Amino acid sequence: MGIENLFLGFQIAISPYNLFVAVIGITLGTIIGVLPGLGGANGVAILLPLTFTMPPTSAIILLTSLYWGALFGGAITSILFNIPGEPWSVATTFDGYPLARQGMGGQALTAAFTSSFVGALFSIVLITFFAPLLAEIALKFGPPEFFAIQLLTFSSFVGLGGGNPLKSLVSILLGFILAAVGLDIVTGQLRMTFGFVDLMKGFDFIVAVIGLFGVGEILLSVEEGLSFKGVRTGMNLKVVFDTWRILPRYARTFVRGSFIGFWMGFKPGGATPASFMSYAFAKRFSRNPERFGKGELEGVVAPETAAHAAGVAAMLPMLTLGIPGSPTAAVMLGGLIIWGLQPGPLLFKEKPDFVWGLIASMYTGNVIGVLMVLAFVPFFAAILRIPFAILTPVIVVVCAVGSYAVHNSMIDIWYMVIFGVVGYVFKKLDYPLAPLVLALVLGDLAENALRQSLIMSQGSLAIFVTRPIAGVISAVAVLFFVLPVLTPWWRRLRGVPAIPRATREI
Amino acid sequence: MRTADLVTASFLMVLGGVVVFDAVGLGIGWGTDGPKSGFFPFSLGVLMIAACAVIVMQAARRAAARPFVTRAQLGPVLKVLWPAVALVALTQWLGLYVAAAFYTGFYMRWIGRHSWLAVLAVAILFPLATFFVFEKWFLVPMPKGPLEAWLGQ
User: Fold this and answer.
1) Which residues in chain B have Cβ-Cβ distances shorter than 8 Å to A431?
2) Is the complex ipTM higher than 0.90?
3) Contacts of A43 (CB under 8 A, 6+ apart)
């Protein structure tokens, strides 16, 4: 099974056109990752309409490469500018920025990129072997199992996401409600349109992502003033090779970070807690924990390895189950549907060239990515030296272009602005945005799975409990939903004071 | 922060009410071929109202610690927000490219105080580059206005 398929995939991934697409994707992705207000999710969303005319395999390679690039770019802003471009880059700033201020920015960046690469590679290898197995199992799933998995996806945001579990729940509900607006394809009735023609089309997740993550992020980042400040860095081959000589010392941290990342990452919203957890473990097992936070190279290695292992692992449930593990994966899933592919386990049977081309491109994309960012850091860092008054309007216009391109409709640009304000308010009030986007993407799929299950059972909810696989998954989902209620009670019972959670998923 | 929390949760609660109202109109029970259209939205709306009610109660019991946004923070936020709104409004009249030119130029002059030469260069070259990348290369049409009509595009 695996090896010859992977070989087939590599033949697709290393065709000149697809390599070219990967290079373009990584370049754009890194630029997007560096730019404030643009991250993986909305970068992919903005580019999605441009891929409608491409062959699906090349299109997904472009978007995944963009994602790798954005992950690398996030490290640049965290280390040189102390701006975590993505929530999972927050832990990287703890030691990355102090290192940069001590003139060791080059070392920190080399360590970050190398760790990202190692973490990503670890997850890709695991995906290569696990994805076909998981898809094989998932082929036996019916609507009740799929609905149970969706329940599990969203329950893990509520139970494991940190922050206020009720606010996570509200975000999920709002996403589902927005997804339900417009034409109900099953009965042909209009829902929640209240006679407005514009509402009939519903809300597109691409527009929501661009508004929530793009415009909202810019509004939040300018609160501290209308400028970006950064540290200059010297980056050359000598620094890279010198750092590579030191890095094998942190072999344990690499391994630990990779495992934490993969384990947390294939569940939704896992990248941020994974990065914090990996950082905390590295600090605990370090011989000199007091140096963490003041510029310790290991403090960059640990979160970066875990974050990227998690970022890649998020692709596993998207490919095999059709359930995305992160907002970026959710946008890609939306892309699959637009390209006319049915996400889920059947993809492995029906479109092996697509699946294996994608998996192989993860290898090639990350190799190309790490080499490119190592070589061109000064160029990418220079982007943030473009004056604020030029960068901001350019970003806003690009966001507007991306929103309009989805349906060629003006109302979508207005929605983008509204979602931007909503994103700003929600972020300030700690309503997580990732579950909202996931719910918006999965809304129709989840509702259909629920309806079909209920039709199978003649309206009885017992179907989610009595079928063995669905029953187990539902039970875990229910456990996650009640976890926020149980945890304080359990702590009190054992006499341990409640610990406020430091990590929260945004 | 407390007031904003209360207002947001109350607003979402009203939204939940609207959803429930619409769902009841569509029918929330069992139709001839499965659950009716309102079944799923109805559950969402009810859950939304319940969750927001608890959030409101939680927020009401908490003391108002820090403001949602300080005056010093609001200034720059609005300086990004209202020009962005103006851009969208202008796009409706003038098309995206002309609106982008005015918006970029205005922003550079107003916030960045760049020289008129730089302002003109960026305000003309950036929309032009956007035009070629999207309209010509990727064949994604953008909203157009009188200028494009006059140029015969």
Assistant:
1) 8
2) yes
3) A28, A29, A32, A33, A66, A67, A70
